[in-house]
Amino acid sequence: MQIKESLEKTLPERRQLTVLFSDIVGSTFLSEQLDPEDLREIIRNYQNACTGAIFRYEGYLANFLGDGVLAFFGYPTAHEDDAYRAIQAGLDIINSIKTLSKQIEKELGVSLKVRIGIHTGLVVVGDIDKSDTLESRTIFGQTPNLAARIQATAEPNAVHISADTHKLTRGYFDSSDLGMHNFKGISQAIAIYRVNRAANVFSRLDANNNRLIPFVGREAELGLLREKWQHAQTGKGQIVLLSGEAGIGKSRLVHSLKEYAGQDTGFQSIELRSSPYHQTSSFYPIIDFLEHSVFQFEKNDALDEKLAKIERFLKQYDMPLADSVPLVASLLSIPLSKEYALPALTPQRQKQKTIELLNSIFLHQANQKSVLFILEDLHWIDPSSLEIIDQLIETCSQHKILIVLIYRPYFKPAWQPKNNMLTLELTGLSETNANEIIGRISNTKALPSEARYRWRAADISRVASRIPRHFPVKR
């Protein structure tokens, strides 16, 4: 038995892997200009920045290659969004290096820039010795080599990705097509894209809006949500707790509710999303919503322009600017101008006043228009944001607001049942419904019975989202 287990441990694995390769721009020039101790400190800080970003998105730091960094996403731990994670890690590395470079320029008079290349492809993971450790396992295949080649095409402080990576993340990032590139030793030209920034999308459905799977088998649940929305429109705030496993169709159901609510010209949507990468970041979904959806900060906005955007927004709700602007600016880490001052409060009291202000803003909006308040991935919410949801639930009953909280079953809400609260748990679709979705997505193309068995029921929405794009979807 021990011999068999040892053999199984060392058997090669075939994996789809996303590889990130990062390298310092002009490292030879830096080595000529700097004292070796200073250079060592810069490279150490650079490696720390890379390591932090890679670990944040649960990648694997494979190796430091001089001033290069090699990381894997998809091995040893695989996620359904490894390509997305790799690109986010790359963008985070660039942002960290920009901040680090400012300090280096001030102290040493030189700048630090990096290039990043990312490619997704098949590899074989196998041992090169019998030690049976993670470090002894080697990646076989051209994927790491292509990531390094793509990195060499990047401008300073840019992330370049292959077409294979781009296909897996289309809609999630604003990218520029850089055309086909030929590499020595590679028989076929490779299409390369520059990643400019993360796109302001709320969910996978927003990223793939032109490829929504058909709405099938959830008519009863949608009817209940519509009833709740109708009650909310009369000024009787409602709450829906919507749970279900990943890929079961929660987001698709809420998307249909949004379409229904959108028929009302007085409708307003507030959409927040928790993140598995920011569970310890206080107020993360709130901050993300304010920065991208409310204030719509641009990359080059000066500090005074950001403060002006905050002021214009708060004036809509008759908020006293002297009290509210400092709290919002502090929440978003924006320095205050001379005309504002943050009151002398304990951290706990400042946090409580911030929660009260945000709750007041949400309810003010619900006084002016009917509000559909959606929070996706409640199971990943940080404690501070959860306090806002607690207060919103307690104070929403006399306002035109429907609060929809979406989470996976392992999360256990602590709220006591209320007359205005509905709890819905989605289960797998029937085989008939699943087959109908498959048939409509594949345009009645025949599918093997084994594939139909794998694709039906519980995981239908996740699997269907990966059906090749050349299948036209019939609405």
How does this structure look, described?
With 475 residues, the chain is an alpha/beta fold. It has 2 domains: 10-199, 2-Layer Sandwich (Alpha-Beta Plaits), CATH 3.30.70; 218-425, Rossmann fold (3-Layer(aba) Sandwich), CATH 3.40.50. It has helices spanning 2-10, 27-33, 36-56, 82-108, 143-153, 163-169, 204-207, 219-233, 250-261, 284-294, 303-315, 321-331, 347-368, 383-395, 431-441, 449-455, 460-464; strands at 13-24, 60-65, 68-73, 114-127, 137-140, 158-162, 173-181, 190-198, 238-243, 267-273, 370-376, 401-407, 421-425. The strands form 2 sheets. Strands 1, 2, 3, 4, 5, 6, 7 and 8 form an 8-stranded mixed β-sheet that branches. It has a 5-stranded parallel β-sheet with strand order 10-11-12-9-13, sandwiched between helices. Helix 11 (303-315) crosses helix 12. It is globular.
CATH architecture assignment name of the largest domain: 3-Layer(aba) Sandwich
What is the CA–CA distance across the termini?
A: 54 Å
Question: How does the helix and strand content classify structurally?
Answer: alpha/beta
Query: CATH superfamily membership of the largest domain, which one?
Result: P-loop containing nucleotide triphosphate hydrolases
Cα-atom radius of gyration: 25 Å
Helical content stands at 40-55%
Keywords:
disordered N terminus, globular, alpha/beta, Alpha-Beta Plaits, five-stranded parallel beta sheet, 475 residues, Rossmann fold
Compact summary:
The protein is of the alpha/beta class.
